[in-house]
Amino acid sequence: MRSAEFSTTTTLPAAAEEVFEHLADPNNHVGLSPLVVEVRDIRHGPDAVRFTAVERFTLGPLRHDNVIEVTLRLGEGTITGDVVSPGGVRVAYGYRVDPVPGGTQVIDHYRLSAPFGLLRFAMGQAKKVQAARGRELARRFTAKRSQA
User: Fold this and answer.
1) Domains and CATH numbers, the chain
2) By three-state DSSP, how is residue 39 classified?
3) According to the model, what pLDDT value does residue 135 have?
4) I want to staple 50 with a disulfide (CB 3.0 to 4.6 A). Which of 37, 43, 44, 127 is the partner?
5) What letter would DSSP give residue 22?
6) Is residue 23 helix, strand or coil?
7) What pTM did the predictor assign?
8) Where are the beta strands (DSSP E) in 60-145?
9) Phi, psi for 61 (deg, rounded to 5)
């Protein structure tokens, strides 16, 4: 199986605690990733949150809902998780949330592995999701700040 790693960094106009809480709440993941259209069956543990997510893939008029089990492991300024998707695609991801002057910096890191022939497609989808997530986080926290 081949693998790839990549990261993006987003700076947000909010306190690190607020950003961490936002990312740790599964309900906030709907729309945060453009693929996630639903979360359900949320289970809270002492160091982790588990839930079921529905990812929606579309190709023209065709639609496929991919149901995945997600675990968010909550650490000191970090949230990490793993997902196994159909076709043997595996994603290990993590957020590093750090205060910076005027807000918070979020490093969004992926480690992706997939069978031969799927890595390029999976990596392209993951990079699109990652870029969209950074834009959506910035939009959400900028909107919150302007409402205050």
Assistant:
1) 2-147 (3.30.530.20)
2) strand
3) 94
4) 43
5) H
6) helix
7) 0.89
8) 62-74, 78-85, 89-100, 103-114
9) -80, -5
Angle at 123 between CA 95 and CA 39, to 5 degrees: 55
Query: How far, in Å, CA of 142 to CA of 13, rounded?
Result: 6
* Model confidence pLDDT, tens digit, residues 129-145: 899 999 999 999 998 77
pLDDT, the chain, mean: 91
pLDDT-derived band at 48 (thresholds 50, 70, 90) equals very high
Distances in whole angstroms, Cα of residue 120 to Cα of each of 114, 123, 127, 130 = 9, 5, 11, 15
Q: DSSP assignment, residue 28?
A: G
> 48: left (phi > 0), else alpha (psi -120 to 50), else beta?
beta
**102 Cβ neighbours under 8 A, 6+ residues apart:** 11, 13
